[in-house]
Amino acid sequence: MCEERKWKKDIHIQLANMKYTDSCIEILQNSDLGRAYFSDYEKAANMLTYAVVQENIYVALDENEKCLGFIYYMTNGVFGSYPYIHIVAVKEEYRNYGIGKQLMKFFEDNATDSSSAKYFLTVDDFNPRAKKLYENLGYKCVGELTDFYKEGINCYLMMKRRG
């Protein structure tokens, strides 16, 4: 895994609106996850538009309001009770600057106010760098889902407990 580079600019994270949809689609489609599941523009657009309407997507913006990445999560996504990250994606040229970590921290700070929270995500077997990031942030593999989203691709279900 590449060492994290120093980010010299301030970013802020805010609820996404429709003006950021195209940027998020581009970021998603230029990721391993996007290439595996969302190479069709319309499918990516429909999914991200739905996330914006549901107010489940947040964008990381630089001082010029340029979208550098996003996180799509549901506060009650697992068993109707636990926060679940659906997608975290950072624009290719801004990866390894800690933006993904900042998005993850935002999620953990805002997805629930429960002192005994459990956070969930899945990560695909073709994405070992992301799995390593999540492990470094305290997520543990609690299961493997064979052919879960797509035949031939296995997912690791990961969980982190608050505190």
Give the structure's gist in a few sentences:
By secondary structure, the protein is of the alpha+beta class. The protein has 5 helices and 7 strands.
Question: What do these coordinates show?
Answer:
The radius of gyration is 15 Å and the shape is globular. Helix 1 packs across helix 3. The protein is of the alpha+beta class and 163 residues long. The protein contains five helices and seven strands; from the N terminus they run E-H-H-H-E-E-E-H-E-H-E-E.
Q: What is the helix fraction of residues, given as a range?
A: 25-40%
Mean pLDDT: 92
Q: What is the strand arrangement across the widest sheet?
A: 1-2-3-4-5-7-6
Structural class: alpha+beta
What characteristic shape results from the CA principal axes?
globular
Q: Name the assembly state.
A: single chain
The amount of beta strand, in percent, is: 25-35%
Unreliable segments (pLDDT under 50, ≥5 consecutive)? none
